[in-house]
Each structure stands twice: as structure tokens, then as C-alpha cells.
Specification:
With about 200 residues, this protein is of the alpha/beta class. It has 2 domains: about 5-125, Response regulator (Rossmann fold); about 135-200, Winged helix-like DNA-binding domain superfamily/Winged helix DNA-binding domain (Arc Repressor Mutant, subunit A), CATH 1.10.10.10. The protein is about 55% helix and about 10% strand. It has a 5-stranded parallel β-sheet, with helices on both faces. α3 (about 60-70) links the parallel β3 (about 50-55) and β4. α7 (about 145-155) packs across α9 (about 170-185) and α8 (about 160-165) crosses α9.
Length: about 200
């Protein structure tokens, strides 16, 4: 594995080049790919420090690339990039082996920072045994018993209606609990909450 090479997979030339420049300024070697097929060919022979993979691309989408590459066993963290706040796709991406999920609305330097954090977490995860969900989530102890029940359902990718039916409460009450959980965990929105929950459930 290269300790400084970043693979950027995005069909948007401008976005791809902007990220490459930002990573270059930060001291990384950025290798870019305009489609999923060319990335897969190189990824099977080379291991970068991290991969940034666009969710929506012509040809194989980011989700299809994750499955073709068997991302859960790949030797580097793969971060999905998307221009949309799409909770179902966050769940699908994380279940398909993505290490994290980043919204494209962040500026390039912020994305570089997130990638640096992901690389550090990846190394820590592979250097030590992974903790369980409750111990991995630092603010878990701040949650009430009911909030923990709701959080467990969120981690299972249940909708508000499904959670309400399972726990015997109203969807509105689920929304209130979800809001409290987001505040205590520090999630900015529903996508961010799913990203944190899915990551921690895997021991990241």
C-alpha cells in the first residue's frame, strides 16, 4: 500500500481535478480515474492509502464498483462521494464495504481532512481489535435506554415507521428521539447520523 497515494474516481472532470490539486497541496499523490471500470482494473493490482469513489457515474455506479471490487475485503478505505443527501444510499454504501460517506458540498480542503482522518482510523482498526458498537460510540453512555433502542434500529437501517411499529411508539416520537440522538452524537443531519452509526457498528 502506498502511504500517500489517493485514488479519485469521478466522471466530473472539474471535481476530479479540483480534488487532485487539493490533495497535491496536502502532500499526497493523486491518481484520477474517469470511470469505475478503469479504477477496478488498477485497484486489483495497486493499493493506495485511500479511495474517493463517486456514487453516481455512467457505467458502473459507485455502489456497483463497491460490489465488483468486494470493498469489505479491499486493502484500503473507500470513501463514497455524493452530491445528494441520500440516506438509503448511505446505508447501501456502508453495507457494501464503504468505509465512510462524504457529501460533495464540502470544500476540497475539508474533504482532504476527512480523508486524512479515515486513513488514520483505518490504520488503527487494522492494528488493534475492533471495539463493539456501544464502546466505539463515545457518546453512547449519554443516551437514554429508549434512545439506545431507537439507535439500534437506526443501525439496522429501519425507517421511522418501522422503528415506531417495532417499539410500539408513534413515528413522531421516533423523530424526537432521533433528534436527541443526533444532538448527543454530534450528527449534522440524517445522512451524517447514518454515516456515524454505520461506521461505528462496523467498529471503525
Amino acid at each position: 500500500m502506498s502511504i500517500s497515494e489517493i485514488f479519485i474516481v469521478d466522471d466530473d472532470c472539474d471535481a476530479r481535478d479540483a480534488l487532485a490539486v487539493a490533495f497535491g497541496r496536502a502532500g499526497y499523490l493523486a491518481t484520477t480515474f474517469a470511470d469505475g471500470e478503469s479504477f477496478i482494473r488498477h485497484a486489483r493490482d495497486r493499493r493506495p492509502a485511500c479511495v474517493l469513489l463517486d456514487l453516481c457515474m455512467p457505467g458502473p455506479s459507485g455502489l456497483e464498483v463497491l460490489k465488483q471490487l468486494d470493498a469489505s475485503t479491499y486493502g484500503a478505505p473507500i470513501l463514497i462521494l455524493s452530491g445528494q443527501r441520500d440516506v438509503p444510499n448511505v446505508v447501501l454504501a456502508m453495507k457494501s464495504g464503504a468505509f465512510d460517506y462524504i457529501e460533495k458540498r464540502l470544500d476540497a480542503d475539508a474533504i482532504v481532512g476527512r480523508v486524512a482522518q479515515a486513513i488514520d482510523m483505518w490504520r488503527q482498526q487494522n492494528d488493534a481489535s475492533s471495539p463493539g458498537f456501544s464502546s466505539a460510540l463515545s457518546s453512547y453512555d449519554q443516551l437514554t435506554p429508549r434512545e439506545r433502542e431507537v439507535l439500534a434500529q437506526i443501525a439496522a437501517a429501519a425507517s421511522n415507521k418501522e422503528i415506531a411499529k417495532k417499539l410500539g411508539i408513534s413515528p413522531r416520537t421516533v423523530e424526537i428521539h432521533r433528534g436527541h440522538i443526533m444532538q448527543k452524537i454530534g450528527a449534522k443531519n440524517s445522512v451524517d447520523l447514518m454515516r456515524i452509526v454505520m461506521s461505528k457498528a462496523r467498529g471503525v
